[in-house]
Amino acid sequence: MARTIKVRFSHGVIKPLEKVEFSEGEEFTVIIHETPKKPQRKNFRDALKATAGGWKDLLDAEELKRNIYADRLISTRPDVKL
Questions:
Q1: How far apart are CA 72 and CA 55, in angstroms?
Q2: 17 with 4: CB under 8 angstroms?
Q3: Phi, psi (5° rounding) for residue 80?
Q4: What is the reported pLDDT for 38?
Q5: CA–CA separation, 66 vs 70, rounded Å?
Q6: At residue 69, does pLDDT exceed 90?
Q7: Under a CB-based contact definition with an 8 Å cutoff, are residues 52 and 60 in contact?
Q8: Tell me: the pLDDT tens digits for 16-27?
Q9: Up-side HSE of residue 79: CA atoms within 13 Å toward CB?
C-alpha cells in the first residue's frame, strides 16, 4: 500500500504533518520528492541585463542585416496569370 503524506524536516528529524497509523518498530521505505520552490521573479529589465552581450563575437550583425535585406528581395511566389 502506498500513501503520500506531507512532512516537515526540522532539527534533523522528518516529522509527519498528518496522522499516520504505524505499529511501533515497523519499518518502511520513504521516498522524498522535494517540493519545487517558486523561482524569484525578475523584472524584465534585470532579465535583459543578465543576457546582454550573450551573442557578442558569435556573429557579424552587419552581415546578418545585409542577408536579411537581400533575402527580402527574393520572390518565391509564382507570377500571377490573369
A1: 24
A2: no
A3: -80, 130
A4: 74
A5: 6
A6: yes
A7: no
A8: 898 888 888 888
A9: 2
